[in-house]
Amino acid sequence: MGAGFSSLEDREKLASDGSSKPGLEDLPESCIALVLTHLDPIEICKFASLNTTFRQASLTDYVWETKLPENFQFLVENLWDEDSCSDSLTKKEIFARLCRPNHFGSSNKAFWLEKNRGVCVCISWKDMKITGIEDRRYWSHISSDESRFGTVAFLKQIWWVEVEGNLEFEFPVGNYSLFFRLQLGKNSRKILGRRICNVEQVHGWNIKPVQFKLSSSNGQHATAQYFLNEPGKWIQYHVGDFVVENSTMPTKLNFSMAQIDCTHTKGGLSLDSVLILPAEIGSRKVG
């Protein structure tokens, strides 16, 4: 009994002289969750390591629903494969799944979340209409660990180059940029740990520019042209931007690249994919 009173007196003494102060662990979990909604995902995970209360708050659906795109239910229900069951997943688990490449339609298209910067989509060359692609005199299909889809198309030589593609996708509201990912030259095996690019077959790209086009179902259009003159590295050529104002309606895109001047041949071009990114990521990126 005396020991109990002694302990109580000690606590009262600590409180009276200011030695015992509230700490982070004393904050209500609901308040912590509200604060976490204003942080990016990496910061949330860092704060989760502070103590048990922060960890529990960081796991709540309330926090992670703010990090998901507004139409995430469409992405989950319509674009995940049938074996994926979202009903049993927390919002954090859904976020983590969406941040990984998710193939849809076929194995030649994929989408993913780019941190807090929206949805990205990548379309393989295999899902595009390409002049002479089945004729091995003109094109070859090369395995590549530098492609999201494992292979790239390599143009040996041709007179007329035309690549066309399309996409229908329910993007979240925002501004987006479309790129063609190309390389002058053909990658060979690594030598002493370095990737060697063979540029012997590169020719014809410095005479006339390549024309790029983009159009959307809501009447937006963009064009661009580039001389391809940087051999040996992958470059994402910016075709144009488009705006999505309604996330519940699918946006239909048509895109193309062409060099149809038949006065000269051109060759030595590697074609990987078309990439669609939130516009704030950058207008012209080296991939």
From TrEMBL:
One Pfam family, short name: F-box
Protein origin, superkingdom: Eukaryota
Sequence ranges assigned to domain F-box in this UniProt record: 21-67
InterPro entries (alphabetical): F-box-like_dom_sf (IPR036047), F-box_dom (IPR001810), PP2-like (IPR025886)
Region (Disordered): 1-22
Protein name (record): F-box protein PP2-A13-like
